[in-house]
Amino acid sequence: MAHSLEFKNIGKLYPGVKALDDISFRTEGGKVLALMGENGAGKSTLLKILAGDIKQSEGIYLLDGKEQDFKNPHEAILAGVSVIYQERQMIPALSVAENIYAGFLPKKGGGIDRKTLYANAQKIIDKFGLHMDAHTKVARLSVAYQQMVEIMKAYSRNPTVICFDEPTASLSDAEISALFRIISELKEEGKIILYVSHRMAEIFQVADSIVVLKDGKYVTSMDVADASEEKLIRAMVGRDIGDTYANLKRNDKYGDVVLEVKNLNNAKVHDVSLTIRRGEVVGLAGLVGAGRTELVRAIFAADKVTSGEIILDGQPVHFKSPHDAIKAGIALCPEDRKEQGLVLFRSIRENTTMPVLSELKKGAFLDKKKEKEIAQEAIEKYDIRTDTMEKLTTQLSGGNQQKVILGRWTNSLMKTKLLILDEPTKGIDVGTKAEIYQMVCDIASQGIGVIFISSETPEVIGVADTIYVMHNGRITGQLKREEATEEKILALAMD
Amino acid sequence: MKAKLRRMTNSKLFTLTLLLIVIIVIFEILSKGKLLSFKNIRSILQSVSVVTFLAIGCGMLLMSGNTDLSLGGVGTLGPMVLAFCIAAGLPWYVALIIALISCALCGLGNALMVNYLNFPTFIATIAMASISQGIAYLISGGKNIDMKDPTLNFIGTKRLFDFIPYTFIIAMVALVIYAIILRKTKFGRSILLVGGNAEASRLAGLKPKKISFILFVNASCMACLAGSLMCARVKTATTAGLSGSQFTGITAAILGGISFGGGTGGMMGALVGIFILNVFNNAMQLVGLSSYYQTVMSGVLLLVALIYDKIMENNRMHRAITAK
Hints:
The complex is a heterodimer.
Chain A: E1 4-14, E2 17-28, E3 31-36, H1 43-50, E4 58-63, E5 66-68, H2 73-78, E6 81-84, H3 96-100, E7 107-108, E8 111-112, H4 114-127, H5 143-156, E9 161-165, H6 173-188, E10 192-196, H7 200-206, E11 209-214, E12 217-223, H8 229-237, H9 241-246, E13 257-265, E14 272-277, E15 281-285, H10 292-299, E16 307-312, E17 315-316, H11 322-327, E18 330-333, H12 337-341, H13 348-352, E19 361-362, E20 365-366, H14 368-381, H15 398-410, E21 418-422, H16 430-445, E22 449-453, H17 457-463, E23 466-471, E24 474-480, H18 486-494
Chain B: H1 2-10, H2 12-30, H3 38-63, H4 71-87, H5 92-115, H6 121-140, E1 145-146, H7 150-157, E2 159-160, E3 164-165, H8 166-184, H9 186-196, H10 198-203, H11 208-234, E4 236-237, H12 246-255, H13 267-286, H14 291-322
Antiparallel strand pairs in B: 1-4, 2-3
């Protein structure tokens, strides 16, 4: 009998956000099921539940008709579920063989049976058709090969279910075709395969059926034969997205050049030049890892600059730290809200006033009354939904967290000239996204220059006035909004 | 009003105070009234002062997300330098300044190792514990040094109204000053923000390294004062000094609701933590348990505090979810 995997009404609650809501679908052995959806649609969360990494709040899942309840990833692996995550989980100092068999090393006597270990590992490597020695330390492999080791690790456990989470993100074409060959072999062996990817072409090449998720909810499923790119995009984004951009009240009055970057270089950024005027929203598009985050971090002095010029309001500047950049009027909303943006276990008030504490001094002490005014200003201006400004930011939803950070940088004590937004809508629901787009336009209307980074191309086209595309740390093109299309940007991003 | 009351009863400080009262009531009964006798309270107050200085230094560091295991060694070195200088004929205040400077250098060393060489805090400060303890031996030639200075001995041994030790008063003044710094100033706020998330704080314009330097130096100076007050009382700088008592400081701070990861806590909680620890130890002695049990029980007490903290944390998370 063929293997089967079924999800029934799976839900997952996090503080302030419902990551998954009533997900039900079924797939069987010998088939590749593609999971599709925007960032934050809930694909990774679902895989984590399946892998025993986190526990669902509602619902059950059945493997071969039996309900499963993995308490940890090890139990899931023993039951035949292997998940290959986007982030590689290798131990760099160990060999390829040791990584493949990590946690399941062949034993002899009291020790490890090294002979069997390396022989078995080499067998798998050969089956995958890779030129690799099982003794090589993983640290010395390229990112693509590390990814392949990850896949071999999953394969070595002889799983019933194999899940790929964006497996091709760091692979070259040759390696991708090797991967697809392996996937089709796994299919023939009757395994259940879940495949998460953003790349349409791949989906059509490798998948048999498709399930689309959106904002943690099940949208639809279809056979690949019935699917088209258009159909999928409509299911993934919902049709109201186009209207959102059309309805934005944009700023069309630009002032002087606020920031000019000339031939900027560091380890991840190569020879980048760009200009931003007051009131202009400049979008940075590109694939993950194109160097956009690194570029803005360099401008903000969060990372080092090796050469090049940064000119703010006509004056060359050399910042030693973000502190200097902020004093000069540059603000950054970092990519990772929770790790780099907020102090989660402190209140909305304390998070809002972080950069203006010096301005809030009255003698030796902080002026609490003034501070509350500033926090209240942010709450009203950005419609942060909370009953009190003393609420810890960890208790807020993603959208409200982002608004707290916006409030931090645009309150009346700040003299922000340039606001950098790195993936400001990541993991935020569609409704709040639209709110944030309008806020970005409003901020620009106040004469602030805005840099807007997003990996969702339609968003960059929809929000930015001018779009720079990056690839491998370089700027590969510059487009006006009117002339920008997803295809053009993608072509520049892949170069 | 109701909400305010609920917030209060939910706060760590409230539960801690409750715990302290429960301990006092139980042991007051068990010890047949000896715990709250005039003489015994006096002795508790005396023992509280040394721990208070350690807990201030260590607590501030913990709140900023760091820790310091060298405080015992540094707190031995400080008074040794003090006694040595006094024996050499320097006036007590000059000697104290020299002692503070030598301890501050230890703190500076810790901060350099942690911030510029990126050594893990535990390892760096353990190294410093060894170095400072060793230097204390070298200075004294392995022997205790008498510390006969009328002013210091007065402060160390005398009491106001023959009840409140002067060391206790100094410790409480210091505690209040630090509480005000923490609650009311930009520096205090920065400590909590940096402790909560150092990278986010840096990207919001705060200076985590600067704060770390100040707090490491501060902790070492506090250890110096703790050791010096203790030695002023016994009129001798001993080679054992404060060795090992860094853990007492950490225990008191954590008992007092300062989280080990940083970012939360306050000085009033630390004060209650200090009292819980000292009253508990004192009470165990009164009811005749050997000091070995005391050591075990302080560990158990700390574990209970941590478990309780964890449960409260989970409850808060749960409420945050169901509220949505």
